[in-house]
Amino acid sequence: EVPMTTLTSLDSEALNRLHDTVRAEYEAFKARGLKLDMTRGKPSPEQLDLSNPMLTLPGNGDFFAEGNVDARNYGGLQGLPETRALFSQMVQAPADQIVVGDNSSLALMHGTIAAALLKGVPGSKAPWSDGAPTFLCPVPGYDRHFAICEEFGIRMIPVPMTGQGPDMDAVERLVADPAVKGIWCVPKYSNPSGETYSEETSRRLAAMETAAPDFRIMWDNAYSVHHLTQDHHTVPDILALCAEAGNPDRAFIFASTSKVTLAGAGLAFFASSPENVRWYLERASFRTIGPDKLNQLRHVRFLKDDAGLERHMAAQAAIIAPKFEALLETLEAKLGGTGAAEWLRPAGGYFVTVDTVEGTAKRIVTLAKEAGIALTPAGATSPYGRDPHDRTLRLAPTFPSLSDVRAASEGIALCILLAAIEKQTG
Ligand code: PLP
């Protein structure tokens, strides 16, 4: 059994004994021949089942939206008014400043950045690609955000997260460079740390002086309604804060129902200032004659209103909260007090971030793989996949079954402990 004492306080004899014990436990775990996957933040089949009733909606006789709009036909680039109204609270923007895209918010982020590079955004003197466009990347962050930057050759500068969002002293210093065009933000239940930006962080982002007149906050509110506890976090209205500070066009908001309804067949949202929405719709008009309005109607018929959305998200939480609990309990039982790892208990979102002993994350992922547990590659939460401390693990407990999460958590804790002991024994 694991001692509730820090590893560093053990003498070398005690440490060697512990090494033998933990190694034996690890080998026993490995011998179970399990095949477990804690890599991606996907909803489980059980969560997707919650939205099965939506699959028969709107039905073959219900295709007229408000204002006698035939949802089967072309048009309606901005999205149905009733869909924009339904998601106005979740997206935190007035309905007339929301655009309903297709099924992926990541695609909308990719598209807005591509357009910014080629044509610029409101406030640009030239397309972003004329310079050496650079983004600030709060770390740990979402690997797919960083991948978009890498894909387009946008330079990335890591900025540490603080528990209240990004280190704003660093951000304010870095935006004095006119090449810095944007910052990635997951303001609520952040991917992957789970932290929520404070009021002060949000205010400073909205008000800071940026050398680039066309600087953008990529406000990816992917987990806006994805609570795990009764403590529902809130973030300020970023569009209002930016407008108040005299920077009305600074924030691009993104969100989706990928983890509300269906991860392959949900709705994605872009929201911003009236000027940015005009800009966005003009770009979109060259790309499509209109979105899938039947899916928009389907979501309205299914979720109905804010109360319906809230009930649905409570049902989601009831499925996944026990998985987070199982993971956190196991980490606490196996690693608490050892000094081998630190983690936050997230109040929402899809991830648990574990900071291990410096220089052991890669080793842990390898040990886990050999024991049949797939983990996200070490480094994935940093730009270019490089974690200079080789310390951060991102764990995603939503997709596997509860019993698989329990088993995987046990195995992961053993790997973390074993790697920490190996590091210390040299
Ligand atoms: N943004 C964040 C922060 C995410 O964690 C994810 C998915 O994990 C996405 C965006 C992807 O969203 P979508 O399915 O709408 O493309």
From TrEMBL:
<dbReference type="InterPro" id="IPR015421">
    <property type="entry name" value="PyrdxlP-dep_Trfase_major"/>
</dbReference>
<keyword id="KW-0032">Aminotransferase</keyword>
<keyword id="KW-0808">Transferase</keyword>
<protein>
    <submittedName>
        <fullName>Aminotransferase</fullName>
    </submittedName>
</protein>
<dbReference type="InterPro" id="IPR015424">
    <property type="entry name" value="PyrdxlP-dep_Trfase"/>
</dbReference>
<dbReference type="InterPro" id="IPR024551">
    <property type="entry name" value="AspAT_Ic"/>
</dbReference>
<dbReference type="InterPro" id="IPR015422">
    <property type="entry name" value="PyrdxlP-dep_Trfase_small"/>
</dbReference>
<dbReference type="Pfam" id="PF12897">
    <property type="entry name" value="Asp_aminotransf"/>
</dbReference>
<dbReference type="GO" id="GO:0004069">
    <property type="term" value="F:L-aspartate:2-oxoglutarate aminotransferase activity"/>
</dbReference>
